[in-house]
């Protein structure tokens, strides 16, 4: 008779099931993205997935861990997809490869693998690459560039010269650049009036991708895959500071809605700050983590030198997470007040 | 309608209760052999009162409570004691425990059962009566009930909570007991109420047992007592004493406090039932209702004699061929029985035949992803993944900082963990390590103080020896005058006489004399012990007794020892 321990019943849950849910929740956004940009997005997702699985397998082998069990948990694929979605869709193949490898090998396995990484691997990849290759990481194609699949593949695999023309900035970047040329005397309102770049709310096309992330996030919340507190706190943090500054100086600061649907806000809110491993775990800690990340993301994106601030904000909060957790331990049963 | 409170966390596993609820409670047939462990409750181990070969009657006490927190055990039927020896215990460890093995004679011959009117008993006698009838918590905790039946001195008892929640999946013994024997349960509760004098009596039953609720309500109405029978939401572990107390009273009893200190006490329905049988019928606890369910052809509840070997019991349910194990208790907190020879005991509320289909082998353990599901499920609002982390790292100080000992091992955290980490196992490991260390530390402390004591004594002896040598040398030098000085006139105290000689020599002499006198007194004290403060009369008395003792003929002494009664076998 083998030695067994209670409980003998367990819920039908697994890491794999959670990860599959996350992947499924990304599908709507990917669909919108492909519709807007073209198949390049899928190519990037494919490259990232392949590289992530190979990297993961190699590291598991090196660390002498059961291959099938850990490759099957889906966590590497989730990281790969997040990296692919955070990177510019027409970035060269080696850039996404470097980013993904950095996420899997260094940010994940060198820190001890699944469950041990203090930093969000996808955000590490983004941060490293944007520091190392700032211009490549800032080349976002305009949504109606109308590149055919052949053209996109050529760009990704380096057979075509990277034209300045295709490196349209993101709406966030465009707004910042326009306003920075302060001599131009432009106000936010006049810049945003350019619907060709800024669409209806948050940048032409991008608002739909953001909405798709939101839909996926809400679905995960409804399925209890994420708790929702961190996401809500993150959006609240960003909305709060955006609203405050916008009310103070509507000429210089975009309205909060613009910030909520542009850049990586929604991706960050539902797929990045929700990462349990690198985030906070206590109820109050989650709120603090999300709120501070939202606030910081805004500050970095508006006042900093990079096109978006989500990655740096999340990484900074990752550093603080253990401290926040430690100081927000909830009172236990019978020990309240 | 009573206001209900919520407890945080908890889980809702499938209940699997229906199969064993189809038939009423049946009386299990007499087994071929009964193996009655002497230690069936929390607390002291009862001493065996019977010998091999002795004939015992049904209900005869075979093990007496040896201390206040302990309870008696009884012969479940009449027959012959064929062994008093260690036998496999109903415990996952597979260890043995001192047991009385009885071969039934089939006559089911009772002791002379003496019903008592508990109103006529002083509370103290009543508690003793329950202890001697072996009444313990039958919810599974088997804590001697009489030891829980005193209110705290400083805190008035406010609520008496009666636990009929039965939240463990598969288990239905309390449900059927409440359906079929509600009136006796309620009468038993009345006894507890009269002892504790609470302001309110609250009976909590999970709302998935409408028949039991109905039957208990009717019994309460019939007996005209003002007990509140309340349906509580079905959510494991609503039947944990602390959770039920929380739901019914809003009070949260932490690990560091006993519930009477907070004006509340909790008993299981089956316990109340046995208390009533013990008083009104003079029947000690020799049987209990056991659910037999799971992978068996005929699941059912059986009124089973304690000591029935598992192997004989399961035959009543006809286990299916793929049965690979038997759990005692529920699937959340129960354990795997170590073998078919292990007996059913007071804690055996349920036996579940398990199969690979019913309880699939656990999925491989993955690393913790800090998803927090365990913390959300923990009814004690702990952070199980932190506890896991520190237990794994053997950082036991930290586990205590994170309230390891508030963990009730309910298993909710393991139940929800997507990484399939056997969290409870880690917590048990950490707890036992801490206990072991504490024991070691206590032993080390004892050894340390022994060592220090010895060291001190050696030092002292050394010093004394040096002093003695010095003194001896000095005495030799001044032999004559010291010898002349009558020792008795020197006071024991150090105070030098008023006319103390001022020269060093004389001072030395005085000191030496004093030391010698001290030594003499000490010698005397050692010899006469505590008699030196006695009056003359007492001394004379002692002398007379001594003289008589010396004169007494041998046969008298023999007669005297014969008068002492042999250790009676109690009935
Ligand atoms: S449920 Fe399991 S994986 Fe999730 S935090 Fe708890 S121990 Fe870790
Ligand atoms: S077993 Fe302990 S830690 Fe786990 S849920 Fe129950 S009380 Fe909480």
UniProtKB/TrEMBL annotation, chain A:
Enzyme class, spelled out: translocase
EC number: 7.-.-.-
Membrane topology category: Multi-pass membrane protein
Keyword list, A-Z: Cell inner membrane, Cell membrane, Electron transport, Flavoprotein, FMN, Membrane, Phosphoprotein, Translocase, Transmembrane, Transmembrane helix, Transport
GO BP: electron transport chain; transmembrane transport
Keyword Electron transport: yes
InterPro entries: NqrB/RnfD, RnfD_bac
Pfam families xrefs: NQR2_RnfD_RnfE
Swiss-Prot/TrEMBL cofactor(s): FMN
Function in brief: Part of a membrane-bound complex that couples electron transfer with translocation of ions across the membrane.
Protein name: Ion-translocating oxidoreductase complex subunit D
Lineage: Bacteria, Pseudomonadati, Pseudomonadota, Betaproteobacteria, Rhodocyclales
TrEMBL record, chain B:
GO BP: electron transport chain
Bilayer topology annotation: Peripheral membrane protein
Domain of life: Bacteria
Sites where the protein binds [4Fe-4S] cluster 2: 378, 407, 410, 413
Bias (Basic and acidic residues): 537-549
Enzyme class: translocase
Residue ranges occupied by any 4Fe-4S ferredoxin-type domain in the UniProt entry: 358-388, 398-427
GO molecular function, one term: 4 iron, 4 sulfur cluster binding
Predominant subcellular localization, coarse grouping: membrane
Keywords of the record: 4Fe-4S, Cell inner membrane, Cell membrane, Electron transport, Iron, Iron-sulfur, Membrane, Metal-binding, Repeat, Translocase, Transport
Entry protein name: Ion-translocating oxidoreductase complex subunit C
Provenance organism: Propionivibrio dicarboxylicus
Native organism taxonomy: Bacteria, Pseudomonadati, Pseudomonadota, Betaproteobacteria, Rhodocyclales
């Amino acid at each position: 008779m083998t030695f067994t321990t209670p409980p003998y019943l367990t819920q039908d849950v697994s890491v794999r099931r959670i990860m599959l849910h996350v992947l499924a929740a990304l599908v709507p956004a990917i669909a919108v993205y492909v519709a807007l940009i073209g198949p390049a997005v899928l190519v990037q997702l494919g490259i990232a997935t392949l590289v992530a699985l190979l990297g993961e397998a190699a590291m598991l082998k090196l660390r002498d861990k059961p291959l099938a069990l850990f490759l099957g948990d889906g966590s590497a694929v989730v990281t790969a997809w997040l990296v692919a979605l955070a990177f510019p869709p027409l970035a060269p193949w080696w850039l996404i490869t470097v980013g993904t490898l950095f996420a899997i090998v260094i940010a994940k396995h060198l820190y001890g693998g699944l469950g041990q990484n203090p930093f969000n691997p996808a955000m590490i990849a983004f941060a490293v690459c944007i520091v190392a290759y700032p211009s490549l990481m800032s080349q976002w194609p305009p949504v109606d560039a109308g590149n055919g699949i052949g053209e996109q593949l050529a760009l990704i695999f380096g057979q075509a010269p990277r034209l300045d023309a295709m490196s349209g900035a993101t709406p966030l970047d465009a707004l910042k650049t326009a306003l920075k040329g302060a001599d131009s005397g432009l106000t936010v309102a006049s810049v945003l009036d350019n619907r060709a770049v800024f669409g209806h709310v948050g940048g032409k096309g991008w608002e739909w991708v953001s909405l798709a992330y939101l839909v996926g996030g809400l679905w995960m919340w409804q399925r209890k895959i994420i708790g929702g507190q961190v996401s809500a706190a993150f959006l609240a943090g960003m909305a709060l500071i955006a609203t405050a500054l916008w009310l103070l100086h509507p000429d210089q600061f975009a309205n909060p809605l613009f910030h909520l649907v542009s850049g990586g806000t929604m991706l960050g809110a539902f797929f990045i700050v929700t990462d349990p491993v690198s985030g906070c775990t206590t109820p109050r800690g989650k709120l603090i983590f999300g709120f501070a990340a939202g606030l910081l993301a805004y500050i970095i994106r508006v006042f900093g030198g990079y096109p978006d601030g989500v990655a740096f904000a999340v990484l900074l909060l990752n550093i603080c997470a253990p401290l926040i957790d430690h100081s927000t331990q909830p009172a236990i049963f019978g020990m309240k007040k | 309608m009573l206001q209900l409170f919520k407890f945080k966390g908890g889980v809702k596993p499938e209940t699997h209760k229906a199969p064993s609820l189809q038939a009423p409670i049946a009386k299990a047939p007499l087994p071929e052999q009964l193996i009655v462990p002497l230690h069936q409750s929390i607390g002291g181990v009862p001493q065996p009162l019977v010998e091999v070969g002795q004939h015992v009657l049904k209900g005869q006490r075979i093990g007496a409570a040896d201390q206040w927190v302990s309870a008696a055990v009884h012969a479940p039927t009449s027959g012959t004691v064929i062994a008093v020896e260690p036998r496999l215990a109903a415990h996952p460890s597979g260890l043995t425990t001192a047991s009385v093995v009885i071969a039934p004679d089939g006559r089911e011959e009772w002791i002379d059962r003496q019903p008592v009117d508990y109103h006529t008993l002083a509370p103290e006698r009543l508690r003793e009566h329950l202890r001697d009838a072996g009444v313990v918590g039958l919810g599974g905790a088997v804590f001697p009930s009489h030891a829980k039946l005193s209110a705290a001195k400083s805190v008035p008892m406010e609520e008496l909570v009666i636990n009929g929640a039965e939240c463990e999946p598969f288990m239905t013994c309390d449900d059927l007991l409440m359906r079929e024997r509600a009136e006796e349960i309620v009468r038993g509760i009345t006894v507890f109420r009269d002892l504790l004098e609470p302001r309110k009596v609250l009976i909590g039953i999970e709302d998935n047992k409408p028949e039991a609720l109905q039957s208990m309500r009717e019994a309460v109405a019939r007996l005209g007592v003002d007990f509140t029978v309340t349906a509580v939401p079905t959510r494991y572990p609503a039947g944990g004493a602390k959770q039920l107390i929380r739901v019914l009273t809003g009070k949260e009893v932490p690990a560091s406090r006993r519930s009477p200190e907070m004006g509340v006490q909790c008993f299981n329905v089956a316990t109340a039932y046995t208390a009533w049988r013990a008083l009104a019928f003079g029947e000690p606890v020799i049987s209990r209702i056991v659910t037999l369910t799971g992978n068996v052809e005929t699941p059912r509840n059986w009124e089973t004699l304690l000591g029935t070997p598992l192997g004989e019991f399961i035959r009543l349910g006809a286990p299916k061929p793929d049965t690979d194990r038997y759990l005692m208790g529920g699937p959340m907190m129960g354990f795997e029985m170590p073998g078919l020879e292990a007996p059913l005991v007071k804690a055996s509320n349920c036996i579940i035949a398990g199969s690979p289909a019913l309880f699939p082998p656990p999925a491989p353990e993955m690393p913790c992803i800090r998803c927090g599901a365990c913390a959300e499920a923990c009814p004690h609002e702990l952070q199980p993944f932190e506890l896991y982390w520190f237990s794994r790292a053997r950082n036991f100080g930290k586990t205590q900082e994170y309230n390891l000992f508030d963990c009730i091992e309910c298993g909710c955290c393991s139940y929800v963990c997507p990484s399939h980490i056997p969290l409870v196992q880690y917590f048990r490991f950490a707890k036992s390590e801490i206990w072991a260390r504490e024991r070691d530390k206590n032993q080390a402390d004892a050894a340390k103080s022994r060592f220090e004591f010895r060291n001190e004594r050696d030092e002292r002896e050394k010093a004394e020896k040096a002093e003695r040598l010095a003194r001896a040398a000095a005495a030799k030098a001044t032999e004559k005058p010291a010898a002349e000085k009558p020792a008795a006139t020197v006071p024991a105290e150090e105070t030098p006489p008023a006319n103390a000689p001022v020269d060093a020599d004389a001072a030395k002499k005085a000191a030496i004399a004093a030391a010698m006198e001290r030594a003499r007194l000490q010698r005397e004290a050692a010899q006469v012990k505590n008699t030196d403060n006695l009056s003359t009369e007492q001394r004379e008395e002692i002398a007379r007794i001594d003289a008589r003792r010396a004169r007494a003929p041998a046969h008298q002494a023999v007669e005297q020892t014969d008068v002492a009664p042999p250790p009676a076998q109690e009935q």
